[in-house]
Backbone:
């Protein structure tokens, strides 16, 4: 959850979000991020050990008070239900190089606009293409009838993929984005499309659909 929040905040301060997307989707990003975190943690540990003995009682008390505040804050957070945990609600969204469309739709759905600046605003090169793709997916989901219950032996594929262009835009990340935004009908439609795109994962996607429907009933 923290990762998603910080990513949205960074996007709000980024003029050209394509640069941000290219950075987070780079295969070296996770390695660099992990190494940086480990380095910072080691430095923090060294500083803590060196300065612990010279902390006076007042400073130590402030530290304890801060920890108590954090503990109370964590206790006040609403825990996720078992179904939400299965659906990986509030877990970091990771985008690869093939999910540019999913990344920009996520930013649009979360309504994070760039910070106003005095300099001339630079329009993103992908704006028009992104808009067309969003309209295409929305039109596809609205126009297609609801798929019947998924059975062990058969799946009703009637009218699901009429448009190959729309189908190839659908990704697991985009399905999760719809789910995070509580757009449950779109999320179900997305997983139904993914069942047809990736039949080898049909059981996994069918479980996702089942869990989403259970989540809807409990809301």
Residues:
């Amino acid at each position: 959850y923290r990762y998603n929040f910080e990513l949205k905040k960074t996007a709000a301060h980024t003029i050209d979000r394509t640069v941000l997307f290219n950075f987070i989707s780079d295969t070296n990003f996770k390695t660099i991020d992990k190494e940086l975190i480990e380095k910072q943690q080691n430095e923090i540990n060294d500083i803590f050990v060196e300065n612990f003995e010279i902390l006076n009682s007042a400073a130590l008390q402030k530290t304890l008070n801060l920890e108590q505040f954090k503990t109370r804050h964590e206790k006040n957070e609403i825990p996720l239900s078992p179904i939400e945990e299965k659906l990986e609600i509030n877990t970091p969204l990771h985008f690869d190089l093939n999910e540019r469309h999913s990344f920009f739709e996520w930013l649009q759905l979360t309504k994070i606009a760039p910070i106003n600046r005095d300099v001339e605003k630079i329009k993103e090169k992908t704006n028009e293409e992104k808009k067309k793709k969003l309209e295409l997916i929305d039109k596809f989901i609205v126009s297609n009838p609801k798929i019947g219950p998924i059975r062990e032996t058969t799946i009703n594929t009637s009218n699901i993929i009429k448009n190959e262009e729309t189908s190839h835009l659908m990704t697991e990340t985009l399905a999760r984005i719809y789910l995070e935004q509580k757009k449950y009908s779109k999320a179900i439609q997305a997983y139904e499309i993914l069942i047809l795109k990736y039949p080898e994962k049909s059981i996994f996607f069918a479980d996702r659909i089942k869990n989403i429907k259970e989540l809807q009933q409990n809301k």
Observations:
- Residues 2-25+56-218 form one domain.
- The chain has a mean pLDDT of 65.
